[in-house]
Design brief:
There is one protein chain. This protein is mainly alpha-helical. The protein has 5 helices and 2 strands; from the N terminus they run H-E-H-H-H-E-H. The chain has a two-stranded antiparallel ribbon. Helix 1 packs across helix 2. The longest helix has 18 residues. The radius of gyration is 14 Å and the shape is globular. The relative contact order is 0.17. The mean pLDDT is 95.
Length: 114
């Protein structure tokens, strides 16, 4: 997204493209979705990359690489729990079953956390 001013709409399109590429869907709750998209946008403004808004980061791209959206743990979380850690990405099966994202265990190794 370099060379362009990043907007909330760009972030939402990015998330939608990431979901489609991975066989997921975006959280269907419009207020929740807007909140997470705003969080991603704000981390972009702060750090220059879209850090998962539900996690603390180092503020250093290389050290935060594993939690740049979609994080390295998202696929395993969606497969096991039906949604990623922050609830942005969900499986269609999870939504069809009436699931609502909730708290799940953190997969990020403690040694990688700030």
């Amino acid at each position: 997204m370099s060379g362009k001013k990043l907007t909330l709409e760009n972030v939402k399109k990015f998330a939608a493209n990431a979901a489609e590429k991975n066989g997921w869907v975006l959280n269907p709750d419009p207020d929740f979705l807007e909140s997470v998209v705003e969080g991603l946008y704000n981390t972009y403004l702060e750090f220059g990359y879209m850090l998962c808004p539900c996690r603390e980061g180092w503020g250093e791209r290389e050290r935060d690489r594993d939690v740049i959206c979609p994080c390295h743990y998202a696929a395993a979380d969606v497969a096991e729990f039906g949604h990623c850690y922050c609830g942005l990405y969900v499986s269609e099966k999870f939504i069809e079953a009436g699931g609502e994202p909730g708290s799940i265990p953190e997969r990020r190794p403690e040694e990688l956390m700030p």
